[in-house]
């Protein structure tokens, strides 16, 4: 990749990170305000569903703080000791958010089961008002984050959390209506279990996505066998080995390979043409556009010697 391409990539990443920080900051302010209101109302009304949603929003607030920190760290420049900068911070932040979601899901689930067995008194009116306020705040947050949810795992995690919050608020409203109309207070515990059912799958999804990046798995939409076939179709290429692909951070896939070419190609100046063909192939021929690709060209004779030495 050329210096201009690298500069453009870095500039695009910094611009996207700046936009992400702005969206996350707005949503954090909304979440913090609703969180305080839900805790106060939940304690006054005795609603577990409301407190469960507040607990969920507490993880959202903590997750958003982590996301903002990670978004800042990911813009720090690379150094000799950190050659990719701190771009992995956004992936670690997403994994931490997922872990917190899972813990809240377990705690609320256990408490909800207890309330199904022995329900308490609930003031449905205050629960309903707070549920409506929470839903309105979540809808606004969803609109703020909707445009950036494809930028990185941090924004995606925040968006999914807000969607879950909105559905949780719907559950709180439904439970409040049932309690108000029928007096059946177990509806509150059932709403809490609904929130848990929303939390756990999203936590698992986020952990899986973050784990794939942290474990240096091949990008999910990239078929490495297809990459190998494309490389072998490039003129003068005889073999490819040590082919690796992974993701540094969201939107930054990386690929490296040792490419075996005919001996005469290294002597007659064909290397520049072959390298350009390989880089174009990596950047344009696959669902995942790879602009960070490194290819080491090796003469076929060296490959044959290596095979003999291994016997």
SSE topology:
Blueprint: H1 3-45, H2 48-73, H3 89-117, H4 124-146, H5 153-182, H6 186-214, H7 224-232, E1 237-249, E2 252-261, H8 263-267, H9 271-284, E3 292-299, H10 300-309
Parallel strand pairs: 2-3
Antiparallel strand pairs: 1-2
Which key features would you list for this structure?
311 residues, mainly alpha, three-stranded mixed beta sheet, elongated, disordered N terminus
Instruction: Please tally the β strands and state the result.
Output: 3
What is the count of helical runs?
A: 10
**Distance between the first and last residues' Cα:** 37 Å
- How helix-rich are the residues, as a percent range? over 70%
Low-confidence stretches: 1-15, 307-311
Rg, Å, rounded: 26 Å
What oligomeric arrangement do these chains adopt?
single chain
Strand coverage percent: 5-15%
Report mean pLDDT, rounded to a whole number: 80
Shape: elongated
Please summarize the sheet with the most strands. 3 strands, mixed
Q: Reading side by side through the largest sheet, how are the strands ordered?
A: 1-2-3
**What structural class do the secondary elements suggest?**
mainly alpha
Order of helices and strands: HHHHHHHEEHHEH
């Amino acid at each position: 990749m050329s210096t201009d391409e690298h500069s453009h990539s870095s500039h695009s990443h910094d611009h996207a990170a700046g936009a992400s920080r702005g969206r996350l900051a707005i949503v954090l302010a909304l979440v913090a305000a609703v969180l305080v209101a839900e805790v106060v109302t939940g304690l006054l009304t005795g609603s577990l569903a409301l407190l469960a949603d507040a607990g969920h929003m507490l993880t959202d607030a903590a997750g958003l703080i982590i996301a903002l920190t990670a978004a800042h760290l990911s813009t720090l420049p690379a150094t000799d000791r950190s050659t990719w900068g701190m771009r992995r911070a956004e992936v670690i932040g997403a994994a931490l958010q997922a872990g917190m979601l899972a813990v809240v899901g377990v705690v609320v689930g256990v408490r909800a089961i207890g309330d199904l067995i022995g329900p308490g008194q609930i003031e449905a009116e205050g629960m309903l008002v707070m549920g409506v306020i929470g839903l309105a705040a979540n809808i606004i947050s969803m609109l703020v984050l909707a445009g950036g949810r494809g930028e990185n795992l941090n924004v995606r995690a925040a968006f999914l959390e807000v969607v879950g919050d909105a559905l949780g608020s719907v559950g709180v409203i439904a439970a409040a209506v049932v309690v108000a109309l029928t007096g059946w207070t177990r509806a509150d515990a059932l709403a809490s279990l609904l929130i848990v059912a929303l939390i756990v799958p999203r936590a698992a999804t986020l952990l899986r996505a973050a784990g794939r990046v942290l474990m240096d798995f091949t990008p999910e939409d990239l078929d490495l066998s297809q990459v190998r076939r494309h490389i072998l179709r490039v003129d003068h290429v005889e073999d490819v080995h040590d082919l690796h692909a992974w993701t540094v951070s969201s939107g930054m896939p990386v690929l490296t390979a040792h490419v075996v070419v005919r001996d005469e190609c290294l002597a007659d100046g064909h290397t520049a043409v072959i390298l350009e063909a390989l880089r174009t192939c990596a950047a344009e021929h696959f669902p995942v556009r790879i602009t960070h690709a490194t290819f080491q060209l090796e003469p076929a004779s060296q490959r044959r010697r290596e095979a003999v030495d291994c016997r």
